Amino acid sequence: FCVCLCVFPGLASGLEITTTGPSSIEKASGQSVKLECQFHLAAEDTGPLDIEWSLMASTISKRTKWYVILYSGDRAYEDYYEPMRGRVHFNSADPKNGDASINLTGLKSSDSGTYQCKVKKAPGIRSRKMLLIVMVKPSKPRCHADGPTEEGKDVVLKCMSSDGTQPLKYTWEKTSDNKLLPASAVMGKYAQDLQNKRSTSLKVPYYRVENDKRMTKELERPGRGKNGSHLP
């Protein structure tokens, strides 16, 4: 007689990534972060164990992929990526036990990007992606008046912060009297403000002597600190 064995794909087992944590993490610069990647091996996964962590970072002109840290041939390669040398380590002294997580210390803005943990043990192969956003506190803005401040003419005040996670939030106020801006003042309506999210401008139409009060511009990244600057 004949015996028919049926294998249902939904019941098949194999290498699996078991981590179910958040796929997006926000951290402040200088802090540390643990990127989770636990896995489970099956009996049929008999090949050598390879673990690779890669970073996909975006620049203005292109997207670039770097290999950050590797595990292969029972050995960890933790100094593989020069910008993270000495700052990235496997969480477990022996990743073969099912923990491919990594710890990254001294976070920098350049560490932001999409990280992928890939675990391979033939015939099994699985991967997991997560987004890391490193928040940078805004630096003190540098401010100036764009052009001469002549009575009867429009005046444009400009400020820019060289550092800070975009988009930055700007507010303007006077530092004297009731701190209210002139009713005709308009903030951030110029093309350069829309293109450069680190800058802000304030237009005061029909400049009058009584409007010549000290003004302050404060910028804030919610939850990440604030800074300010004065215009005489």
TrEMBL record:
Question: Which UniProt keywords are given for this protein, alphabetically ordered?
Answer: Cell adhesion, Cell membrane, Disulfide bond, Glycoprotein, Immunoglobulin domain, Membrane, Receptor, Repeat, Signal, Transmembrane, Transmembrane helix
Q: Name one GO cellular component term.
A: intercalated disc
Instruction: Give the chief site where it resides.
Output: membrane
Pfam hit, one: V-set
Location of the protein in the cell = Cell membrane
Region Disordered: list its residue ranges.
211-232
> Could you name the domain of life of the organism this protein comes from?
Eukaryota
Q: SMART domains attached here?
A: IG, IGv
Query: Topology relative to the membrane, per the entry?
Result: Single-pass type I membrane protein
The question of whether Disulfide bond is a record keyword is answered with yes
Q: A biological process (GO) annotation for this entry? A: homotypic cell-cell adhesion
Question: Which one of the record's GO molecular function terms can you name?
Answer: cell adhesion molecule binding
Biased-composition ranges, Basic and acidic residues, are 211-223
Outline the extent of the Ig-like domain.
9-132
Name used for this protein in its record: CXADR Ig-like cell adhesion molecule
**Which organism's genome codes for this protein?**
Takifugu rubripes (Japanese pufferfish)
Its lineage reads:
Eukaryota, Metazoa, Chordata, Craniata, Vertebrata
